[in-house]
Design goal:
There is one protein chain. The protein is of the alpha+beta class. It has two domains: 88 residues, 2-Layer Sandwich (Phosphorylase Kinase, domain 1); 207 residues, Aminoglycoside 3'-phosphotransferase, Chain: A, domain 2 (Alpha-Beta Complex). Helix content is 46%, strand content 16%. It is built from ten helices and eleven strands. It has a five-stranded antiparallel beta sheet with strand order 1-2-3-6-5, with no helix packed on it. α2 runs antiparallel to α6. It is globular, with a radius of gyration of 20 Å. The chain starts with 14 loop residues before the first strand and ends in a 7-residue tail after the last helix.
């Protein structure tokens, strides 16, 4: 147990194996055939994390009751949602059966992209009711403010800006979205719906992981985020970049099969991927990782050059 900070707050014996999944997550196997994920949520000096975890648990509980497969956190033996150990706060999540979709390696990548979009749409079908009950407990995001903040974070970094393209893109984005953004449907969204956070069981049923970033925002953010994550996976491959527009169209088609798009959402499809790449670039710049910020800007410039029509 000493190698697993906080694990002694749960009765996990007997543990048969452990594997580090990332810097914050350890996969734990126990008898009989149980799988758990021990995740560091943050520092023990951040008491607000307890409230955040309670909110997340409430959403996951309601989603589970509505038939959405989610990884529920397990309370400690003392009934808490987080355990304090080694200066950190830890949560224990149940494992979900299934696997991620490897869209790029699939025999029919567009079909797999459609499945991702449809899964997000099914998740979103449950969100309006949760939003009506819980919206006041979660951050109310404003994409326009996030984009402006990211642009400010990039100012003065010296990152490449060929022919002043950044200002041109930002001006076009602002002009288009100023009228469109207020009309976009909003509710609680996952906010981190990249393909690795969506797993499918043997029956094809989707499950969702990592709801830490839950917030109220335009619902179109989630399928567009999933799509730009696919682009990022293979951005250095010119052939994959050429194929991405079709994948984006299929993610959106899958999403619309569960959540039909409104006119304002069709108008916004061209610009949401720009916003997401800009927000990523600003975030990486704020972290001091200018190389990743540069990569995000390169993806932004590519998206601008290969702008989608206003409807997919």
């Amino acid at each position: 147990m000493s190698a697993l900070p906080g694990a002694d707050h749960w009765n996990l014996e007997p543990i048969t194996s452990t594997r580090q999944i990332s810097g914050r997550v350890v996969r734990i196997e126990c008898e009989p055939s149980e799988v758990w994920f021990l995740k560091k949520i943050g520092a023990a000096s951040e008491p607000a994390l307890h409230e955040g975890m309670a909110r997340e648990y409430r959403v996951l509980e309601l989603l589970s009751r509505s038939g959405v497969r989610v990884a529920l956190p397990r309370p400690t033996m003392g009934g808490d949602m987080l355990a304090s150990a080694s200066g950190g706060l830890y949560a224990l999540y149940a494992g979900l059966t299934g696997a991620h979709l490897d869209v790029w390696s699939a025999e029919r990548p567009e079909r797999e992209a459609y499945r991702l979009g449809h899964a997000i749409g099914r998740l979103h079908q449950a969100m309006p009711a949760l939003t009506a009950e819980l919206a006041d407990a979660f951050p109310q995001s404003n994409l326009q403010a996030d984009v402006r903040r990211a642009a400010d974070q990039l100012a003065g970094t010296g990152l490449p800006d060929p022919a002043g393209r950044f200002a041109v893109i930002q001006a076009e984005y602002d002009a288009a979205m100023a009228a469109t953004y207020p009309d976009l449907p909003r509710h609680l969204i996952h906010r981190d719906a990249h393909p690795s956070n969506i797993i499918f069981d043997a029956a094809g049923e989707a499950g969702f992981l990592d709801f830490e970033l839950l917030r109220v925002e335009c619902r179109l953010f989630d399928p567009c985020y999933c799509s730009t994550a696919l682009l990022a996976e293979r951005f250095d491959d010119p052939g994959a970049r050429r194929s991405w527009t079709a994948l984006f169209g299929q993610v959106i088609a899958g999403y619309a099969s569960a959540c039909p798009l409104m006119d304002a959402e069709h108008r916004a499809l061209r610009y949401l991927p720009w916003a997401i790449q800009l927000i990523f670039a600003g975030w990486w710049a704020r972290q001091g990782d200018l190389e990743r910020a540069r990569s995000s800007l390169e993806a932004l410039y590519w998206l601008y050059d290969h702008a989608l029509p206003e409807s997919c």
